[in-house]
Each structure stands twice: as C-alpha cells, then as structure tokens.
Amino acid sequence: MKKILAAVLATSALVAPAAAQEITEFRIGLLGGENAQDRLASNECFRAYTEEALGVPTKLFTAADYNGVIQGLIGGTLDMAWLGASAYAAVYLENPDAVTPVLVKTNLDGSFTYHSIGFARADSGITSLDDMKDKTFGFGDPNSTSGYLVPLVEIPAAGYSMEPGEFFSDVVFTGGHEQTIIAVLNGDVDGGVTWADGQGAWEDGYNSGQLRKSSDAGIVDMNDIVEIWKSSPIPEGPIVLRNALPEDVKTKMTELTAGLHDMDPQCAYGVAAGETAGFEPVTHDAYKTIIEVRVAQQSQSN
C-alpha cells in the first residue's frame, strides 16, 4: 500500500502548480444526501484531526446539493471532498485540472464498489419494478451516481422507460438520498433509490451507505421498507484534493485520511457512512467508464 500511496502522491505532484501559496485555512466540502446537522456531526472528528495536522483553521461546508460542492472544487473555494463517481466526472469534464482523486473508501471485504438500491414501503405491495407501473419514482440528485446516473442507464436497459408517464407515472427529484428515504416513508413517492454497499444484513441497512446511516439515526426501520431493485456494482467515488494546494498539504491530508481507520475506527465509521476496511489509493482511471456514461447522458439530453 505504501508504494501505491507514494505513486498517487507523485502523480498528483505532476499536475499541481509549481508555486502553490501557503494556506491560511482548509475547507472540506460535504455532498448532500442527509441533513446538514448530521453531515457536520459525522465529519467533525475528521475536521478536528485535519486542523491539528495542518495547523490552520479547518471548516466543513454542507452544500444544499451536489452541484454546490462540484462548483466549490472547480472554483477553488473548497480544498477536499468525498465525491460520488458521477460528481467527480462532472468536475473533471468542466475542469480536468481542478482536482485529483487520491483515495477511495473500501468495504469490509476490501472491494470499493456499491449499489444503487431501489426500495418501497413494505406495506405498499410493491416488491419489484414491475409493481411500479403507474407509480411515482423518486431520485436524489441529478449529479448523484447511484441516485440518478446509474438508474437512468440500467432501469431502461431492463425494459422500464424513465420518461414520466410511459411506465412510471412520474419521475421526480427529492433533493438527496435521505430525502428520498423520507419521501418513500411519507408516501410522497411510491418508490425511490439510494445507495448501499450491498454487504451485510438488510435489517441493518447493509454495512454502509445511506440506508445504514438512516437506520443508525432512527430515520427508518428497515422492516418498514423492502428492496425492489439493485444495480450492478458501481465504483465508489473518490476522495479528491484540489490540485493547487501545496504539496505538503496534499501529502498530509492523503496520509491522514489513509490512516484514519487505524487511528480512530469510530471516526472512520462516521466519515465512511458505516462499516469500512479503510481508505485505499485510487486514480482517475477507475472512473473513466462513469465519465463516458455521463458524457453520453449529456449528449442525449442536449
């Protein structure tokens, strides 16, 4: 792992400006998906560790939607974020020199994939996509990989049109993963999608992901919902660092994050949205397919 980590750091050094200025603060962007208070609480330990490691004030930013973090990274107002694969693709396609992927969250078996999970209320009688005919389907955010991009490709490929009124009565955005879960529970939509590693027990919300976080938080009792669809494996999104950061800052943050699980497993649990084996090196190459899918999706919508 140390050799791979060194290679990642060396690669990021090649794309960084030669004369980066010293930083006076460090800013970590948190993607939407759950309420801002819970996002801040889950990442406060990491913020404190970062502030100690860098010796400068460190702030967490909770954007209202995915695009807020995407634009913050592109515009240089954010220094670090854990992105979904589609959100990383959005950053890369707008400015390929803005950030570099350095690490990825791994599952307990060492893999770094997860799934888009379709679900409905257990008392709805819906047990599969077939049962969603003439029903309302909720999706989290147009920049979410599991909350929109992958379902947009895989659900039509399985024979179910995503055009509102053709199979589903309507296809709507809820604003985020947690919002989708709440919308299904409240009956605002008949079914929805969110993300999970797909490992472990359903009644726990799997081992990690939004179902696990929402179950831990008491937002959902997993006995009240059922799985109605599951995507093929999706590459877990990368932790990225802004390329314009000084090299010593990028090195410190990569090493801090890579060692977080060993140093403080409970903190890593909160940051990783559940059980994790830790954070391992990753490069841009892991996301080439997702970038191609996003380009194709944008071409179709234009």
Automatic annotation (TrEMBL):
An annotated GO BP: transmembrane transport
Cellular component (GO) terms are: ATP-binding cassette (ABC) transporter complex
Q: Which residues form the signal peptide?
A: 1-20
Spell out the Gene3D superfamilies in the cross-references: Periplasmic binding protein-like II
Report the superkingdom from the record: Bacteria
Which InterPro entries does this UniProt record tie to the protein? Answer: PhnD, Phosphnate-bd
One of its Pfam families is Phosphonate-bd
UniProtKB keywords: Signal
Q: Which NCBIfam families match?
A: 3A0109s03R, PhnD
Please state which protein family the record places this protein in.
Answer: Belongs to the phosphate/phosphite/phosphonate binding protein family.
> Which protein are we looking at?
Phosphonate ABC transporter substrate-binding protein
Native organism: Frigidibacter albus
